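Thread title: Can someone regenerate the structure for this chain?

I was given the following input by a collaborator and told the matching structure tokens would be attached. They weren't. Posting the sequence so someone can regenerate them.
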Amino acid sequence: MIAYIISGSGFGGCVDYVTRSKLEEKLHKEQSKGLKADERKYESNKGEDIIDHLSKDWKLLSSSGEIRIYEGRKAMADDIARPSRQRKPIKDPVGHISLDFHPDDASKMTDELMTEVAQEYMRQMGLTNTPYIVVRHFDKAHPHCHIVFSRVDYDGKILTQTTNFKKNERVCKALNLKHRLTQGKSKLNTDVSKLRGKDKIRYPLVHNIAGVYIRPEIQDWNSFLIALKRQGITVKEKTGQSGKTNLYYCTGRHEFWYKKLDPFFSRENLELKFKARREKQQAVTPDCI
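Best answer:
Regenerated them for you:
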């Protein structure tokens, strides 16, 4: 298992995403027109889950007690957002974490085990005293679920643990050992031939960036940018209202925040790696006197 930490500004959009809102709309339209092909592909749940929906691509596994899970997406989003409205607004109040399990663990990854792991993950990360939902997705080869929560807890405290990537790594390793799960790997180990949608762009982009980075002649940021451009990849740096600069990798009409590709690809980290590479090269081939 590996956890990808994401943050955002819109509770409604995040809840819509994890509960496959657009897919539901598509299936309802097809059903109303009497189309059968997708109805066979996405067999109706017939109200067996907490929320009646057409698609079997997702399932609500768990939620905190105050979430109005029977009243639909808007009610759930409002309930998750409630603590963040009790204080001065913060940037990216939405907590969103994807727990991705290895395909080798698929046979034992029951809803009960996935729920247990997700709740343990939140406790060990210190993501407590805040409203949340856990939603399982079935749209990919590997088992995975999404945790959506408020980054402001009931006491008005900001949950800064969502930026602690070192702790995230330690917690994942501890849970993998406890439940005998396979340690997740990065996107570089994903079989891109099985991907669809935006992932068809994202994962090959990670491969291409990594392919440029590992070239020994790439020893500074500018040469890295030039080599990326030859691969059809450009880099944008955007400064937000807080003054913080975010890095985006772009290909075609798509652009991705570096953390959604791999946290390794930050400018700060890469420049440190390039510096170490230069120093190592200089140590091997010192200047002639």
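Residues 267-284 form the longest helix (18 residues).
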